User: Fold this.
Amino acid sequence: MKLTKNIFAVFAASLFTVLLITPITSISNLLWLSSVDMPITLWSSFEVILFDFQRLGMPLFVVFTIAFILAFSVAGLISKYTNYGGKYLYALAGAVAIGFALILMVELLFQTQLLGGNRSLTGKILHWVAGFCGGYFFYNLFSVDRTYTFIVRFFGIFYAYLLLGFVLNWIFTPAIAAAEFGFILDQLSDDAQNALLRDFTSFFVATFLFSILGAITLNPTWFFSAGVIYYGAAIFNLTAIYVHGTPYNKIYIGEIILGTLPTLLALTILYKNRTQKKHE
Assistant:
């Protein structure tokens, strides 16, 4: 159980660090665009930050998770066999991990700076500070006993993060989002475009919000709501194929997956609640 808690603490610390680091790159790029007289508005700035979080987030999450596993393992050994330990040891380990990860990312990507914020000394320092905060966050997570709610909330937020890509595409780049589902937006009538945009955008925004509310409140109804929507989409997808004769597609597989995760989270909450009531 302790190993499981530590693993999820690493995942949570990595996601937290990504949340801190991504805006550094976004703001650095926006400042550069502004310096070359590119028109920057509040809406376009918001769009850039959100898209960077979505597109850079997963690669950075993987890299930071690997770096944190190595760094925190070393910190754990130092804490075990020496008199040095505590939250600042893990915070320092987090900063070192991010520093080395960013250096290796540049060296392994043919001297290419993936992160715009890493091009300046100020940006590098801010990245180290983010790693320091990530390490501090990890220590606070694993040093205190956690219940199943920690894992439920982690997966709830991670599920919402997966849905964020669909949300951003339908809000900011609807033509690209529609093309991914086989629609050429400009060739549809005005009424059809309106129906497509409002329905798909509402579909993904609603399930995104359901997962956030489920993670915050731990009310299984929110997770069940997201699960029902995606299971319903999968069922009616198959109905369209086998009853109405539409072309076969594999989208229903993704819909089943997106319906299964929140449903499992909801069932976990219900099971734990009933178990606790029996022991009272």
